From TrEMBL:
Record keywords: ATP-binding, Membrane, Nucleotide-binding, Transmembrane, Transmembrane helix
Sequence similarity: Belongs to the ABC transporter superfamily. ABCA family. CPR flippase (TC 3.A.1.211) subfamily.
Source organism of this protein record: Spinacia oleracea (Spinach)
Topology in the lipid bilayer: Multi-pass membrane protein
Record GO cellular component, one term: membrane
Gene3D superfamilies reported for this sequence: P-loop containing nucleotide triphosphate hydrolases (3.40.50.300)
Gene Ontology BP term (one): lipid transport
Domain ABC transporter: 589-826
Nucleotide-binding listed as a keyword: yes
Protein name, UniProt field: ABC transporter A family member 10 isoform X1
GO MF terms, alphabetically ordered: ABC-type transporter activity; ATP binding; ATP hydrolysis activity; ATPase-coupled transmembrane transporter activity; lipid transporter activity
UniProt subcellular location: Membrane
Chain segments annotated as transmembrane: 37-57, 312-335, 355-376, 396-417, 424-442
């Protein structure tokens, strides 16, 4: 059957659909103004907070002696070695099975020695030097104090001038002096505090490689080993004529955190080795004195320290702020997918191109507004991070970031299906990327050990390119603050070491890749857009071929699931075949042997949801589909509205094949789904205006159509039309869904149980709307209300176990499958037999269908009895025994439905 030509002027174009969607989005977001205001105010609050903190700290520092402190005479501090604490000093373990290491029991008693590893080409000479490293000291001779080898595990705190916490009188950490051997609890009074004796243990190793290995094993956190050595010496080719030494010194973690310089301890190690070497050559009286450590006189800027701290946390906050909209955008996109609003819009004609274009533009506008608030807040705050860097350069960089961010949100939205999941994914991404940026990206950028290519590779991780840009902006702002520049301008992009240009290239590349991947996954995963497409849908010449199981099912579906067509169903099939041969377009919808078969899985047999349905719907016909739950009605409707693809066969709507031209079919159909799909914060009027625009209604025509639709479904008066749909009752939502399906004069309308939840008055009003609407269009209606089916439908079809069992108008079905009167009589139980005999004497083929407590019900074939005979039977019964009640009724549509369903199910079970 050739698809008929459709008139494009009657269908909404891209501009019209984009306008409708943009208007809806602005109206929807206007209702969410509190959320949007919070989003835009967030940068103002956070950046304002940092500006206030910096101003407050500067004022506090000025009140305490000014912003600058002159240090003319820095305090001298005695030199000391940096050794591990008692709990981390090297001991023997299964990972370090060296017999010369101390036993782990020393940690319990608190007397583990500080171990020094030694190596060199001349072992005997080296060990002789080692014996001189920790000379014995007499506590009684004050002159020996100069020979003390002091040691501490406290890191050296150095903000701008030396403050050695180890020598503070109230320091909780012990201060030691090293000896080859210590007496029990030996200590020496020192000018500031007592100094305990600690054994210094020198151990020989065969090579520097062995020392490297041992030190590495001692610091292996993976195996939960914390065996640290005080230091190591490689005297290499040292002898009496040559002194050559290499030092190992492990900085403590605490020192790194506090920002202290552990290298300030290193000169004492050099002095220790030099003294020992000289004493071996010249005697024990020879000594290189190392009296104290002090910094040069300097000027310490408190403001600089405060600004440095504020800048550090401002970088963290700015980076997190710029990633903040990801969660908001992601939740907004996924909301329409979770509530099935996107597929609802698509079923009313909205094309994917218009949806993605307007959604992208809307997200871009929100994100750019957020970025401008971010930059404006920075300008007003006076922070150098914003004021010194070029405004246009910052705007361009953040513009690229915004586009990258939207494409990333689109990509993630194809993989998640609920708003809660989207919020969790967005928040987790933002948290993890912040952590990884500061602990990985910052170190890679600042380190000189990594090549430029490796840095670029790291920045390709999502979000790291943004961090590189923020890092560069802060670096140039710091230069400007210190008088070394004017901040970052366009000409600075080519500066050596400036990585912002590469970061921009990375963001542009990732933006395009992620946007393409998001579109591909959206089509393949069917994440809210309707049918899934083949993974190779972009290769038109390589369409997906059915699997062997699917081909078998298609070829042998009639044998696997035989159809037992009755005469009326067979006639309908013949009519469809004739229409297909003629290529007729006089019918709105023609279903040509359409099937839906789900292949068997996990050992279960194949399931036929629809077994070759053939049906023709006229232009002004309302066809009612009746059937028990699980009969296959939903599967059939899903194929017709484009949610699933037929296994075989097809259907034509206005001459358009649903398997190849579904996008065009959407423009001429209306759908009232079983569950109401509405925006909770849009009003009923706004819903109708939106869907009316999608159907290409404009100006006065649109306004008149909306007003009439509201009046038809009784939502016009009392201000109901301008209430939020979320405040509607269930019946009001149902009426609005019906009005949406009918607006724009669609050629075919699918009504899935439209009167569910309506009161009798509203139901009758809705029926009148449907009766008027079917004059110019075909309507396919599913319902469980026989009264509704009889009132609305021109023809009915009973659908059981995936197949039509009968087709006809209500009167024909009742005549064909009814054909009997229902006679009921209630007497005393003692007269039950007599009543039954009287009925059988009147009609030999009477069937008793009910008997309980004196009440009996019979089916009397119409062609065998007359009404007068039935009334005469009642009079005769009254003269013989008391009759408490009796009734005579014609066959109802409900009786027909039950009978046909039972027969079909019985036939199916026999097969």
């Amino acid at each position: 059957m050739e698809p008929m030509e459709i008139s494009t002027p009657g269908h909404a174009g891209f501009a019209t659909q984009a306008d409708a969607l943009l208007r809806k989005s602005f109206t929807y977001q206007k209702r969410n103004k509190s959320q949007n205001c919070c989003l835009l105010i967030t940068p103002l609050v956070i950046i304002g907070f940092f500006a206030f903190v910096e101003h407050y700290l500067k004022q506090m520092s000025a009140q305490r002696g000014g912003a600058v402190v002159e240090i003319k005479k820095p305090a001298p501090w005695p030199p000391a070695l940096n050794i591990p604490s008692n709990t981390t000093r090297a001991v023997s373990s299964k990972y370090m099975p060296f017999p010369d290491l101390p036993s782990p029991s020393c940690r319990v008693s608190g007397n583990c020695p500080a171990t020094f590893l030694l190596t060199g080409t001349n072992q005997s000479f080296v060990m002789t030097i080692a014996e001189k490293m920790f000379p014995p000291v007499s506590t009684e001779d004050p002159s020996d104090m100069d020979r003390l080898v002091l040691a501490t595990s406290v890191p050296l705190f150095q903000p701008n001038y030396l403050v050695d916490a180890a020598f503070e009188p109230d320091s909780p950490s012990p201060l030691y002096y090293l000896q080859s051997k210590c007496k029990a609890n030996a200590s020496i009074p020192y000018p500031t505090r007592k100094v305990k004796c600690l054994e210094g243990l020198n151990l020989w190793r065969n090579s520097s490689s062995d020392i490297n290995t041992e030190i590495y094993k001692g610091a292996n956190k993976q195996n939960k080993i914390d065996n640290k050595f005080a230091a190591a010496f490689d005297f290499q080719n040292t002898n009496k004529a040559n002194f050559n030494v290499t030092l190992w010194n492990e900085p403590s973690t605490d020192a790194d955190i506090l920002g202290s310089s552990t290298f300030t301890r290193l000169p004492r190690l050099v002095n220790l080795a030099s003294n020992a070497y000289l004493q071996v050559l010249q005697g024990s009286d020879t000594q290189l004195l190392f009296e104290f450590i002090k910094e040069v006189p300097t000027i310490f800027s408190i403001n600089a320290s405060v600004s440095k701290t504020v800048d550090f946390f401002l970088r963290i906050a700015s980076f997190g702020l710029l990633l903040f909209p990801v969660t908001v955008l992601l939740s907004s996109i996924v909301y329409e997918k979770e509530k099935k609003l996107r597929i609802m819009m698509k079923m009313h004609g909205l094309r994917d191109t218009a949806y993605w274009a307007i959604t992208y533009i809307y997200c871009l506008m929100v994100s750019l507004l957020f970025v401008q608030f971010f930059l404006i807040a920075g300008k007003l705050s006076g922070l150098y991070f914003f004021t010194k860097n070029g405004y246009t350069l910052q705007s361009m960089f953040y513009f690229l970031h915004v586009n990258w961010q939207i494409s990333f949100a689109f990509l993630i939205s194809t993989l998640v299906s609920t708003v809660k999941t989207a919020q969790v994914v967005g928040s987790t991404f933002m948290m993890l990327i912040c952590i990884f940026s500061f602990f990985i990206a910052s170190r890679v950028i600042e380190s000189t050990a990594f090549s430029g290519s490796f840095v670029v590779l790291v920045e390709m991780f999502p979000g790291f390119a943004l961090y590189r840009g923020v890092y560069e902006f802060q670096k140039y702002a710091t230069f400007a603050k210190n008088g070394a520049g004017v901040g970052m301008q366009w000409q600075n992009l080519n500066d050596p070491g400036n990585g912002i240009k590469k970061a921009m290239v990375i963001m542009i590349t990732e933006w395009k890749i992620m946007l393409s991947l998001a579109y591909y996954l959206d089509q393949v995963l069917s994440s809210g857009s309707g049918r899934r497409r083949s993974p190779l849908f972009f290769l038109h010449c390589l369409r997906r071929k059915p699997s062997s199981q699917e081909q078998y099912l298609q070829r042998n579906s009639s044998q696997l699931f035989p159809s037992n067509d009755h005469s009326d169903v067979a006639q309908e099939r013949q009519k469809v075949e004739q229409l297909m041969q003629e290529g007729s377009t006089s019918y709105t919808a023609i279903c040509d042997n359409i099937k839906k078969i789900y292949p068997g899985r996990d050992g279960n047999p194949a399931k036929a949801a629809v077994r070759g349905l053939s049906l023709a719907l006229g232009r002004s016909e309302c066809f009612g589909m009746l059937g028990p739950n699980g009969a296959g009605k939903t599967s059939f409707i899903s194929m017709m509205i484009g949610l699933t693809e037929p296994t075989s066969g097809t259907a034509y709507v206005e001459g358009l094949d649903i398997t190849t031209c579904m996008n065009n079919v959407y423009t001429c159909m209306g759908v009232c789904p079983q569950f109401d799909l509405l925006w909770e914060t849009l009003t009923g009027r706004e819903h109708l205006y939106f869907y009316g625009r999608l159907k290409n209604l404009r100006g006065p025509v649109l306004k008149r159509a909306v007003e009439e639709a509201l009046k038809d479904v009784n939502l016009f008066h009392g201000g109901v039309a301008d209430k939020h749909a979320g405040k509607y009752s269930g019946g009001m939502k149902r009426r609005l869904s019906v009005a949406i399906s009918l607006i724009g004069n669609p050629k075919i309308v699918y009504l899935d149980e439209p009167s569910t939840g309506l009161d009798p008055a509203s139901r009758n009003s809705l029926w009148n709307v449907v009766k008027r609407a079917k004059k110019n269009r075909a309507i396919l209606l599913t319902t469980h209300s026989m009264e509704e089916a009889e009132a609305l439908c021109d023809r009915l079809g009973v659908f059981v176990d995936g197949a039509l069992c009968c087709i006809g108008n209500p009167k024909e079905l009742k005549a064909r499958y009814g054909g009997y009167f229902l006679f009921t009589m209630t007497t005393t139980q003692s007269n039950d037999t007599e009543v039954e005999n009287m009925v059988l004497s009147l009609c030999n083929n009477a069937q008793k269908t009910y008997h309980l407590g004196g009440t009996q019900k019979f089916e009397l074939p119409k062609h065998e009895v007359r009404l007068a005979d039935i009334f005469q039977l009642v009079e005769d019964a009254k003269s013989k025994f008391p009759v408490q009640a009796w009734a005579l009724a014609d066959t109802t549509l409900e009786d027909v439905f039950i009978k046909v369903t039972r027969q079909a199910q019985a036939t199916s079970s026999d097969e």
